[in-house]
Amino acid sequence: MLSAALEVLRGRSFAVDVQARVGVGFYEEDENDNGEADIVGRNVGFGAAITWF
């Protein structure tokens, strides 16, 4: 999994950031003997967050 965030706004008691995440997962054994995983999961996510402090 790989992720990154960038703070785009900051006040005295809060911050706003945007985020991006990417991941790949390989599952199951090689049942058909082709040298590759039989099930591959991929995900991509984008979001925003507000932090109060």
Spell out the key features of this protein.
53 residues; mainly beta; three-stranded antiparallel beta sheet; 3 strands; 0% helix; rod-shaped
Q: Care to describe what's here?
A:
The chain is mostly beta strands. The protein has strands at residues 2-10, 14-27, 39-52. The chain has one domain (2-52). The chain is rod-shaped and about 60 Å long.
Concise account of the structure shown:
The protein has 53 residues and is mainly beta.
Please render the helix and strand layout as text.
Layout: E1 2-10, E2 14-27, E3 39-52
Antiparallel strand pairs: 1-2, 2-3
- For this entry, what is the oligomeric state of its chains? single chain
Number of helices: 0
Strand order of the largest sheet: 1-2-3
Counting DSSP E segments of at least 2 residues, the number of strands comes to: 3
Query: What class would the helix/strand composition place it in?
Result: mainly beta
Please describe the biggest sheet, giving its number of strands, its sense, and whether it closes into a barrel: 3 strands, antiparallel
Give the domain tally.
1
Order of helices and strands: EEE
Q: Tell me, briefly, the overall form.
A: rod-shaped
